[in-house]
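Dear H.,

Thanks for agreeing to be a second pair of eyes. The structure we're designing against is below in token form, covering all 226 positions.
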């Protein structure tokens, strides 16, 4: 059971709890998806960092959305009602992961017909010209799955008279989780994978395939619970 947080320290406690969660359970659960996506798009160091940051922005957005709705639907935050929600959220995350993995797999099949100059030009435009929609979508749907410490914060926050408490607590919790090894390890993964130029095509296909497997696994596990 997570330790209670005093009212005077509620916001700092949310940030610290997110930091500890990011250093422990959050990184292992997110890194397989992040590194597989980085491999699937053939990202180097800079783009891997941008992808990881975008993924985290998606998670923080989802946490803030969940926190904003928690006060309105506080009567539904219990074991009976949260299980179906968690299952549907996990199905959505799995479906998005499958779609992204399939699109990367299709792109990987075609990438062998492109020149190295065309590929690097595409990646450069994708980093600086627009937001990486794939990593944001994965982060957003992953963040909709409420983890145990966030659930504890929401249950505590909805009892306060201020309706903004759950929103702010969820946002600070999400912000705390970003101050974890995820960002650094995502960049390292991109740097290492980009060094294996001879295996780049196969690394992309492997990353896309792993995303497909992870997405299917998330959907199947959720369907069993339902």
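And this is the sequence the design step returned. I haven't edited it by hand at all.
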């Amino acid at each position: 059971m997570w330790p209670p947080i005093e009212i005077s320290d509620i916001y700092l406690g949310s940030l610290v709890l997110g930091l500890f969660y990011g250093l422990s359970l959050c990184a292992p659960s997110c890194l397989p998806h992040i590194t597989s996506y980085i491999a699937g798009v053939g990202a180097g160091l800079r783009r891997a960092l941008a992808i990881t940051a975008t993924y985290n922005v998606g998670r923080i957005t989802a946490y803030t959305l969940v926190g904003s709705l928690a006060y309105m639907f506080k009567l539904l935050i219990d074991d009976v009602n949260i299980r179906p929600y968690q299952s549907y959220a996990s199905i959505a995350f799995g479906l998005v992961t499958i779609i992204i993995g399939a699109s990367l797999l299709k792109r990987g099949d075609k990438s062998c017909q492109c020149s190295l100059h065309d590929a690097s030009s595409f990646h450069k435009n994708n980093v600086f010209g627009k937001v990486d929609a794939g990593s944001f979508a994965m982060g957003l749907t992953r963040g909709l799955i409420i983890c145990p410490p966030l659930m504890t914060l929401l249950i505590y926050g909805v009892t306060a008279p201020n309706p903004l408490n759950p929103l702010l607590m969820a946002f600070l919790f999400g912000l705390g989780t970003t101050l974890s090894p995820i960002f650094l390890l995502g960049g390292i993964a991109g740097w290492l994978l980009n060094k294996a130029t001879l295996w780049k095509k196969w690394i992309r296909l492997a990353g896309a395939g792993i995303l497909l497997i992870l997405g299917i696994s998330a959907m199947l596990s959720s369907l069993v619970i339902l």
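Two observations from my side: The chain has a mean pLDDT of 80. Residues 8-109+119-225 form one domain.

Warmly,
E.
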